[in-house]
Amino acid sequence: MIITVTGAAGQIGYALLFRIASGAMFGPDIPVSLRLLELPQALDAAEGVAMELDDCAFPLLGDIEITDDADVAFEGANVALLVGSRPRTAGMERGDLLAANGAIFAPQGRAINDNAADDVRVLVVGNPANTNALIASANAPDVPSARFSAMTRLDHNRALAQLSGATGAPVSAISRVTIWGNHSATQYPDLSNARIEGERFEIDRTWVEQDFIPTVAGRGAAIIAARGVSSAASAASAAVDHLRDWVLGTPVGDWTSAAIVSDGSYGVAAGLVSSFPVTSDGGDWQIVEGLEIDEFSRGRIDASVAELAEERAAVEALGLL
Ligand code: NDP
């Protein structure tokens, strides 16, 4: 399995690569080769990470290639984790952020189109992840859009952890939690279908609206406030979970959350990369259909999807799609 990681010398990359090389992503039987894409100024740091990977003597780890050339990095890739992106800096408008990232994700989409393996699966982690995935997919016309996804698994895992903390139920007993919409402050963590030990349970709506939703949506900022830098190990762990479930399948009776290209389900405009409840049997992600959406959920989903539509309009206007 050839796995390409962009932004490999960054802090998420530093947490992610060791998990992949240890076999945490695809299990103990699948050897992995790594392709690390970095900016020219970060190639030395990427070399250092590769030296540490060597020093772990992971039995599953094959060769490691380090490059600043996207065509080389995506050559033969079965899995591509697009982590490196341009962070928002002080005073930067959203339009500037989208343009700066368009300059990264449009060429990477083209490089995936031209070089990756036929079965490539792409996970975008770098923010604004949903719209970066849309840009990459639009620039890879020969790769089915179902092969592109953006990460809301960390939000999903945060929701599981919060519900576990509030109820005392272990995360392993919780199922059918959903993240809808954009991986941003407008995301909607939804417990309307959640189960504990397979059973529906009484949910305090005040707790959901005033505590649970803001805690999940604001968790990234809380971690920056506490740690001084953004979450990295938990983001890397969520990326491992996302790819493992996509390639090996989701557990029977449960689903997970991933941002994928909408087919118009649940009133989400077709073509937007939005988070949905999804399952996988090892092929493409499938949206869980037929869930009831109450008025509160409708309003929250629509608000987040409206933000995605605005982002799409902005990158369309920039000629990135
Ligand atoms: P991180 O590794 O901490 O983060 C990388 C990206 O992941 C950021 O866009 C970050 O968004 C995003 N992200 C998504 N979800 C989360 C989450 N839950 N918690 C934290 N981050 C999340 O960034 P670093 O600055 O340490 O490293 C980035 C690396 O990427 C650098 O080494 C840089 O050189 C490289 N880079 C490579 C490119 C390439 O390969 N062509 C292009 C651009 C950069 P947010 O900023 O919003 O937190």
TrEMBL record:
Catalytic site: H183
Segments forming domain Lactate/malate dehydrogenase C-terminal: 152-315
GO biological process: malate metabolic process; tricarboxylic acid cycle
Reaction equations catalysed: (S)-malate + NAD(+) = oxaloacetate + NADH + H(+)
Presence of keyword Oxidoreductase: yes
Annotated binding of substrate, by residue: R88, R94, N127, R158
Binding-site positions, NAD(+): G7, A8, A9, G10, Q11, I12, G13, N101, Q108, V125, G126, N127
Domain Lactate/malate dehydrogenase N-terminal: 3-141
Summary of the function given for this chain in its UniProt record: Catalyzes the reversible oxidation of malate to oxaloacetate.
Annotated family: Belongs to the LDH/MDH superfamily. MDH type 2 family.
This protein's name: Malate dehydrogenase
Organism: Conyzicola nivalis
